[in-house]
Amino acid sequence: MDGDPQRRPFTKLYSIPFHEVEITDEFWSKKQEINATISLYKMYGELEKHHHVDNFRVAAGVKKGIQMGDFYYDSDLYKWLEGACYFLKLKKNYDLERIIREIVELIKKAQLKDGYINTFFSTKFIEKRFTNFMVFHELYCAGHLFEAAVAHHETFKNSELLEVAKRFANLLVNLFLEGQIVDTAGHPEIELALMRLNEITGIKEYVELTRNLIELRGNLPRYKTYVLRNLIHLIRTLNAAEKIKKEYMKEAGILELPKEEVSEFIAGLNMSDGVQFLLENLNGKYYQLDKPIREVWEPVGHCVRALYLYCGVLDLYCLIGDESLLTAMERTWLKMVKARMYVTGGVGNTRGTEGFLNDFNLKNEDSYSETCATIANFFWNWRLLNVTGKSKHADLMEKLMYNAILVGQSLDGKKYFYSNPMLSKGKDERKEWFKCACCPTNFIRFIPTIGQYIYGFNERGIWVHQYISSKTTLKLPSGQEISLTQKSGFPWKGNVELQLESDKDGRYSLFLRIPEWAQSTKLSLNDEPYQGNVQSGRYLQIIKSWNKEEKINLNFKMAPYLIKSDPRIKSNRNKIVIACGPLIYCMEQVDNKDFDIFQCKISKQPNLVVKKKPDLLEGIHVIQGETSKGKIFTAIPYYAWCNRGPTAMQVWLPIETIERE
To answer: Given the DSSP bridges, would you call strands 653-654 and 575-580 parallel, antiparallel or unpaired?
Structure first.
């Protein structure tokens, strides 16, 4: 199974590793600092408190007890570990390094001789492993182990955890590719993780396993029987696990333990959600098992599952170049953006399946928009950008970063949203932790890697995807080395300065993304006005012979503007959203005490003005305007809402009149 790492031949753009991009941006560096110094440690404390770490101590034989919590708990520790490794790569931290080493040692000791590792099965009933891939997250947890192993390998420059991952992956290769198991992942994630393992190790069987898992989707025989058998197996397995837990509690003298999240979730479904959940299990949509991947044309089912799967599909395309895979992903993306995505970039409009509903069924109060799904959407668009070079994917990444992702964590880095509503009656509140802790642990692995998404390069030249103050040095395929310094006013101001310094003069292209929201753009090159055509929503290509030192100045007009909804979304008719630059704004009741925000209407000529508030919500710009009754309203960036306690909020605002298109 040995091989050499290879660059993916069907990728058009390549990224600069995040640790080679220094973030100097005041906005994002503050987010990274809070997560590195506060969130990371607080999160680890919660993982200790809620048995995620102890489960590995039990599996490793260094502590007596049983696995506690749901069957996917291992994945949360793996995601935290991945994020911790990334933060350590950004900045040396001996205390964090010690914790990482302790966790890695536990994982190594918890691995069985044949390579298997999953604390839920190995500590309770090893004979039940690999018997229900549809429901139990063995492959999902394995995927996050593989990603953590890659992060650890890149940070520590050793193969300690990578060897653990390879042994487990090799076990799966033998079982699946030799025909002992004919099944696929109920919760995709392992697909993209296997491709990352292949990228590091060059082991071609990991690509074949990925292809096998993807191409089985929509091709499982007697699907309804398969589902019913697995659901019955789920109930029996959970009952057996509950019996083991009760016996342990009796012996240990423990009176009561909290219910697992899966049990609470199922019990909390109303009749409508429950029926939908069952139907989407039976028709295969919930697990994206309804169609072969090349026939997919719309996003269906559980959002996180879907979007992780699509990431794996694109990773496979990048290596094998099967155009039918790319075609399926591009048409699915178009359907999502046009009909199944919120204005913030969030996805998921039903709680019952945490998934996609029919076109334009985007109710505001019932919006789900899970933080994990948003991050998965970001990862998918990053891959689409690197495959196609189309600015619409970088535009959506920007929208996701500043809105649907950032809202998932409180400004102090201590609390989180699992789902992110478009409207709240004041009952929504951020929480320090969740029984299903996927969202906080996903957030902690995203934040340190922001530098990776700012720039790209290929044989044609340098691509600037995001306008975030930063410094980096890259080497083009021609061998020319270029240092790039960016100073950006985003997200509050539209001014950007880029300085390029190279070791020699050279001819190449500079591709600058012109955001789709930019109402106008001024550009100068070495203080001389640029005479070419600059269009919003595209990359501007400047091709020339570049001197050793060059300066580019961009000024994107960043003024408040109104977004109208598609009229087919019933709940948003005669409503607008206020936006400014990359930010979506909302109205909170706490800022508008003179009137009920649900009873007011925005004036047809609201006279919107931006005001800087350095002492409000860690320093923001608010937008003020007039209601139809002449009162002054205040709107804040959506990412900052619910940081002053529970309060009413809405994104879509009724307007006095809307002119017909």
So the answer is: antiparallel
Distances from the Cα of 391 to the Cα of 117, 398, 515, angstroms: 41, 11, 8
The alpha carbon of 51 is separated from its chain's Cα centroid by a whole number of angstroms, namely 25
Q: How many CB atoms lie within 10 A of CB 9?
A: 9
Q: What is the DSSP string of 154-171?
A: HHHSS-HHHHHHHHHHHH
In the predicted structure, residue 253 carries a pLDDT above the cut 90: no
Which CA distances in Å does 89 have to 85, 147, 200, 577? 6, 15, 17, 39
Q: Are 37 and 471 in contact (CB under 8 A)?
A: no
pLDDT reading at 30 higher than 60: yes
Separation between Cα atoms, residue 268 and residue 628, nearest integer Å: 41
- Mutual angle of helices 138-156 and 160-177, in 10-degree steps: 150
- What is the predicted pLDDT for the residue at 274? 74
Sign of CA dihedral 422, 424, 430, 431: negative
Please give the Cα distance from 637 to 623 (Å, whole number): 9
Burial class (CB in 10 A: 0-12, 13-18, 19+), 255: exposed
Nearest CA to 32 among 98, 104, 89, 102? 89
Does position 262 have pLDDT exceeding 90, yes or no?
A: no
Q: What is the mean pLDDT of the segment spanning 438-466?
A: 97
For the chain, state the CA radius of gyration.
25
C-alpha count within 13 angstroms, C-beta hemisphere, residue 106: 23
Q: What CA dihedral angle connects 561, 567, 573 and 576, to 10 degrees?
A: -10
CB contact at 8 A, 8 and 320: no
Phi and psi based region of residue 577 (left: phi greater than 0; alpha: psi -120 to 50; beta: remaining): beta
Calculate mean pLDDT across residues 430-442. 94
User: What's CA 506's distance to the chain center, in Å?
Assistant: 37
